[in-house]
Amino acid sequence: MTKDALLFDLLAKGCLRQEQLKKSILVSYTREFDSFDAIDIFHIGEKWNREQRLFWSDPDGIERVGLGYVLRLTAAGENRVSSIAEQKKKLFNDAIIEKWDQGLSGGPLLFGGFSFDPDNQKTSLKWHSFGDATFVLPEILLTRTKENKSLLTINCLMTKDKKPYEEYKRLYEQIQHLKRPQRKLASLLEEDEWTSTEEHLDEWMISVKKAIDMIQSGTMQKIVLSRTMRVDRKVPYDIEAILKALVEHQASHYVFAFTMGESTFLGASPERLVKKQGTDIRSMCLAGTTTRGKTEEEDKEKAELLLRDQKNLQEHQWVVNMISQVLSSFCQSLVVPQSPSILKAGQVQHLCTPISGKLKEDKTILELVQALHPTPALGGYPQKEALQWIRELEVSDRGWYGSPVGWMDEHDDGEYIVAIRSCLIKNSTALLFAGCGLVSDSTVTEELKETRAKFKPIFSALGGLYD
Ligand SMILES: C=C(O[C@H]1C=CC=C(C(=O)O)[C@@H]1O)C(=O)O
Ligand SMILES: [Mg+2]
């Protein structure tokens, strides 16, 4: 039997099971594929379904491109995480999943994320297609593994009206299409083509001052406040060109893009929230920032100053305390380094404490995400009060900025990052986000500079200069 004849077989099996159980059946088939260029494949998706495309690459070198969404799981409000978990469970019940090698990382992965705060009333139309929680299952998912193997996953939901042969024919044609990439020359922006505006800057500075005063008075320990920069072009943004720039310049980051309808949320985040593989857990505390030096020597000097800087160490410590406390309740063992190291992230560098652990009992990746979000790297401390202050002090709607975004598999393993260094793009407008952790030694001027530096990596990828 040829590889794709097996696909037909599975679809027929799915159809039969659908008739027997009288419910929609997920059929997922993963096989080896020809080597591919992820950006090229993403580009092919523009022609056939430009409103349903996703891209994901991680620091281990794994790349994934998803084209077309078989289904969308959505949820709103306080119970959004458990609602997604329930919908996911139902979807995988009775599913037919075939992988030629169980050890490889293809398969029916769900990609998506959550808004930062479902209780924030500033629901703007801009984030409409993303909602409080949205997960998608791509129809075609191409994966390049760490070992440089290419995998093709085809997902299909066999509903009552679907005929196996018709589905097979349609999917087969799409696979042929994938083999004929046409590379378009990605063009970055010319300098005179865009205008940028730092939005509500005065209001933001007043809010930062208020938050610092409050922290100094002892009411709060830490609050993270973010702001937006709008960058307008004369012509629509070229998402592939931006991804190409991010992948080239930010290879050590998580580069992601989720297109939901006309809008794309994309970025290159250095921050892992949590990864779960069986009982192994990995997380990361990232907070405390300085800029990069112009020479290697200056860069190192800045890093050394950061490692000794009391304000940044304090800012960092709230995150270490919270993440280690949360994870210790889930884990039988946890490794937390005594002091932070440096993580270089494009035009900035951070204090970073990686954390790893072993789960004591079976948990899903979503349970871990729910317990961790938002850490004091994006919210503050104490968490509940910090969220309340963010609602009151921030003008912009964070939407999915600063939120958990990622993927999960049929075994409830997966990886979520914190969506920072990111922007929301619609046609010729990009909205960039950057925030900063405020503690008692913060000053408005320094935090303004810090957020300006944090805009740079994504701004550069939109066409500004890398410096
Ligand atoms: C909130 C952001 O960064 C967080 C992660 C690393 C360092 C941070 C800081 O030093 O303030 C922030 O906590 C952002 O980039 O928008
Ligand atoms: Mg900071």
Notes on the structure:
InterPro entries: ADC_synthase, Chorismate_C, IsoChor_synthase. It catalyses: chorismate = isochorismate. Pfam families: Chorismate_bind. Its EC number is 5.4.4.2. Helix 6 packs across helix 11. By secondary structure, the protein is α+β, with helices and mostly antiparallel strands. The termini are far apart. The longest helix is centred in the last third of the chain and has 21 residues. The protein has a 21-stranded mixed sheet that branches. A hairpin with a 2-residue loop joins strand 15 and strand 16. The chain folds into 2 domains: 176 residues, no CATH class; 265 residues, Anthranilate synthase, CATH 3.60.120. The protein binds the ligand C=C(O[C@H]1C=CC=C(C(=O)O)[C@@H]1O)C(=O)O and magnesium ion. Ligand ISC binds next to strand 9, strand 13 and strand 21.
Tell me what the CATH architecture of the largest domain is: 4-Layer Sandwich
Bound chemical compounds: the ligand C=C(O[C@H]1C=CC=C(C(=O)O)[C@@H]1O)C(=O)O, magnesium ion
Summed up, the domain count is 2
Strand content: 25-35%
Family: Belongs to the isochorismate synthase family.
Domain Chorismate-utilising enzyme C-terminal: 202-454
InterPro entries: ADC_synthase (IPR005801), Chorismate_C (IPR015890), IsoChor_synthase (IPR004561)
Protein name: isochorismate synthase
